[in-house]
Amino acid sequence: MTEKYDLVIVGAGPAGMHAAIQARSHGLRVLVADDQPAPGGQIWRAVERTAAKATGDILGEDYQAGAAVVRGFRACGADYRPSTQVWQIEKGWHVYMTHGQQATVVQADNILLATGAQERPAPFPGWTLPGVMTVGAAQILLKTSGQVPDQPVWIAGSGPLVLVYIKQLLQAGGRVAGWLDTAPTQNWRRGLPHLLSALGGWRDLRKGYRWMQALRKAKVPIYRGVADIRAEGDGRLSQIVFQAAGGVQQRVPAQLLLVHEGVVPSIHVTRALECELDWVPAQRCFSPRTDKWGHTSQPGIFIAGDGAGIAGARAACLRGQLAGIGIARHMGKIGDGQADKLAAPVRNRLARELALRPLLDAMYPPRADTASPSDDTIVCRCEELTAGEIRAYAKLGRPGPNQIKSFTRAGMGPCQGRQCGYTIANILAEAQQRPVAEVGFYRIRPPLKPLTLGELASLDDGA
Amino acid sequence: MFRQLDDPGAAALTIYIDGQAVTARAGETVAGVMMRQASPVTRTTPVHGSPRGPYCMMGVCFECLATVDGMASTQTCMLPVHDGMKVERQHGKRSVA
Amino acid sequence: MESYDVIVIGAGMVGAAIAYGLAGRNCKVLVLDGADNDYRAAKANFGLVWVQGKGFGAPDYQRISRRAARMWPAFGEQLADESGIALDYENRGGLSFCVGGTEWDERQARLASWNAQVPEEAACTRMLDRGQLQSLLPGVRLGVDVTGASLGETDGHVNPLKLLAALHKALLVRGAKLINDAPATAIDPLSGGGFAVHAGNLRYEGAQVVIAAGLGSGRLGRMVGLDAPLRPQRGQILVTERLAPLLPLPASGIRQTGEGTVMIGVTQEEVGYDLHTTTSAAVQMSRRATRVLPDLAKARLVRQWSCLRIMTPDGCPVYAQSSSHPGAWIALCHSGVTLASFHAGPIADAVSHSALGAEFNFFHHRRFDVSTIG
Questions:
Q1: Scanning A182, A221, B58, C167, which has its CA 20 to 30 A from the CA of C233?
Q2: Which residues, at least 6 apart from A186, have a Cβ–Cβ distance to it below 8 Å?
Q3: How many Å apart are CA A123 and CA A166, to the nearest integer?
């Protein structure tokens, strides 16, 4: 007999955990599958073992707050399955997952996708060299291994995560060789029109201001309006070439370069399930279309957290709660009136969390050439395809991303388009002079993540 | 490339990278340990044999693949270390034979 | 209004090959291709250039398959030269693995009958027992239940996506015009002869028109007296990560590509226009593949996808010129890779001469006795 659940939640981060707690409070039978060995998602990664330590203090209160949520989650009575990779979801809903090389399937009436976000793919020449990593990766290393770069590190990019990490790194005793700020110079002007609406998030504004002060105090060398970054080296990174606004080209030795151009919702599973997505011009990414409960266009598929739209951990918690309430309502466990009543205070808090977004989006657009990488830039990391190779096919008629995939193999490697989908769409949009929203994104095929043929063959479908 | 902020103490354990014994701490991932080595390279690509190392640390880039306890193409950033684990850098197209 | 000698509707494996052939015969060709998200069987080929067992009970189909395989090497070389795209074509034989004793005996009997159906041709297949199969594949670990295989000596394989890309590039090099995102919506005969093809608001004129629009051919065909019956048949395929060389010869359910990925397939499902993949098919295919080559159990599956084959009632191609609307043609098949050389050669010849030889009479869809028109 296949196990049955009212709700399967994919992802035990802030949104997933809060949704589980909420859904359990209404008596739903809930399974939570997460590919990490412990709850927390990315923002609260390893929080159970790290929060109370010195590293926890470095990571700050927002991080440490996760520990309480994890405790509540572990106690809520959900069937929690760590180190479990969901690799397919089929109508019915049948959720296929693997743990310890054994594949199983469960049936669920509802699915909540709480798979979060990923860093925006931001290619530049040399970005595939060992020694180039994302800022998020470095922060994960701080959380999971308690480690920091052993040399003064170069950082290129813009956005709140850059500021947070630099602040955490300095507090940990690390050093920054230089920050190549790729935000447009005087980006505060772009933010100005949104300042009034952002005042609802004044605590975060103040926090950001304090981080900037900490950077100045530590005399972190900052290069503004940086463009044209190149990473160079023979088999690994050894130097960076860049140009700051109004300056000459500079060449500096570097072993480690951390990059960041914002985060985008993970749309892999939502695309696979054929949920409707909308292009969000202010964030230059696709976001799933949902109702006020996080219900997508696919009946029974809900989404919460950064996967529903980038808004940070606190918003993810609130959206998770709303999804939990919404699913209970969808299942008839509570009436509309009761659901709205429970949701009202959550919605108020969520509105405050979202207040800062337009300001941040305006101030920190992605570096312009992420949409238009040079011909020699590798854009499909897995298949080692350059922008020039993609462009050569872009003009053979007017192919879309799926035709480009079949002509070039872009998107056919193990990452399944996670690192190249947006770049290919951007290149096609530019070459074909049409909006990215019209170009679209790859069709996503199973498995949601690669698994071995042996694991697949091992499927115990309970029959 | 990276250094730990403190000693693992009681949480220390040993893993082997290409046959060489290396200290790791309970709870961290294999990729985390790789980032403390002199070279961050985990594999060379099956397309052109280009060296690659961990990039995202969260399972969405597939650069950190290596052979762990005989299982090739394993995402080392998703795998917590255990004592005695054997990690081998993966070169080009992996063999299944 | 520009007028073309031939308008080819469909730039899939069939349309692109015919257009390429026509463009090389001094025809002014326009190819209209559908939208990025249209059903595109051409993107889902297994890649076999296959003869063994083709057209069982339909000897003319076996004949053109044999002919196509003979023409393939020269066709492939010329296409690679003209397009600058390497096709990864190999022509060293192909296998059909047998698991268990019954499968082996049944395969032997079937191929013996099959060979006998075209008596003028020499046998091109032979049966291998397990020992002989193992000698042919040194270093390959065969599953314990593998009893042997049939070897098709004239079989081979090619990279089907590169083949399609090469056809697209080469037909342009030869001077044909290709318009993407222009699914044909109607065909009207012109009073002075020839046809007008409408693609939404766009309109093109040509002396002849070839309908090679896969599953879209039925509707278009009926507009010009070519009512060929066809139905979709779903095929699902699995593909792994790139692996070190494992299988030196292609097999009918397992094939290692030039890049090193291993393709496993293929199902034959009657599910209408449903492109969803199913985990049950994936499990079934993995179990069969790992039974044949146990080492594949460690390989990682990166992609599963499906396509809709263009299936005629007997599974054999349809090639026909309309009698009510001369100059209108239809070309349908589900073996567009094997027959690519044939489409670029004899079929293109037939269209450019406005006549299909009597040796191809079998392929007219009147064999299905479906309707009185066409």
A1: C167
A2: none
A3: 22
H-only helix segments in chain C: 13-23, 59-83, 101-116, 130-136, 160-173, 217-222, 279-292, 340-342, 348-352
Residues of A in contact with B96 (CB under 8 A): none
Q: What is the pTM of this model?
A: 0.92
Contact residues on chain A for B2, CB-CB shorter than 8 A:
141, 145, 147-150
User: How far apart are the C-alpha atoms of C158 and C73, rounded to whole Å?
Assistant: 11
Predicted interface score ipTM higher than 0.95: yes
Q: Does C100 touch chain B (CB under 8 A)?
A: no
Selecting from C260, C295, C298 the residue whose C-beta is nearest the C-beta of B46 gives C260
Whose structure tokens read 């002509």? A407
Task: Encode burial over C294-321: b for 16+ CB neighbours within 10 A, e otherwise.
Answer: bbbbbbbbbbbbbbbbbbbeebbbbbbb
Which stretches of A3-58 are assigned E, i.e. beta strand? 3-10, 30-33
**Residue A431 bridge partners (DSSP):** none
Would you say C172 and C20 are in contact if contact means Cβ atoms under 8 Å apart? no
Whole-angstrom distance, CA of residue C316 vs CA of residue C229: 12
Measured between its terminal Cα atoms, the distance across chain B in Å is 34
C234 contacts: CB under 8 Å, gap ≥ 6: C267, C268, C269, C270, C271, C274, C275, C306, C307, C308, C309
Sign of CA pseudo-dihedral A191, A192, A198, A203: positive
| Preceding peptide of A436 cis, ω within 30° | no
DSSP A367: P
What's the rounded Cα separation, in Å, for the pair C343 and C167?
12
For every one of its 374 residues, what pLDDT tens digit does chain C have, with 9 covering 90 and above?
A: 789 999 999 999 999 999 999 999 999 999 999 876 677 777 778 999 999 999 999 999 999 999 999 999 999 999 999 999 999 999 999 999 999 989 999 999 999 999 999 999 999 999 999 999 999 999 899 999 999 999 999 999 999 989 999 999 999 999 999 998 899 999 999 998 999 999 989 999 999 999 999 999 999 999 999 999 999 999 999 999 999 999 999 999 999 999 999 999 989 999 999 999 999 999 999 999 999 999 999 999 999 999 999 999 999 999 999 999 999 999 999 999 999 999 999 999 999 999 999 999 999 999 998 555 54
The dihedral region occupied by A321, where left means phi > 0, alpha psi between -120 and 50, and beta the remainder, is alpha
Interface test with C, best of A398, A418, A456, A458 (most C CBs within 10 A): A456
Helix axes A336-354, A312-330, angle to 10 degrees: 170
Instruction: Record the tokens describing residue B84, joined without a space.
Output: 């005695």
With 0-12 CB in 10 A as exposed, 13-18 as middle and 19+ as buried, what is C326? middle
Q: Are A392 and A425 in contact (CB under 8 A)?
A: no
Closest to C282 (Cα-Cα) out of C306, C298, C252, C299: C306
List Cβ neighbours of A195 (8 Å cut-off, separation of 6 or more). Answer: A359
What are the CA-CA distances from residue A79 to residues A73, A191, A396, C18 (Å)?
Answer: 10, 44, 51, 58
H-helix or E-strand containing A389?
Answer: helix A387-394
Chain B: list its partners (3+ Cβ pairs within 8 Å): A, C
Residue C145 CA to chain centroid, in angstroms?
31
Distance CA C299, CA B65 (A): 13
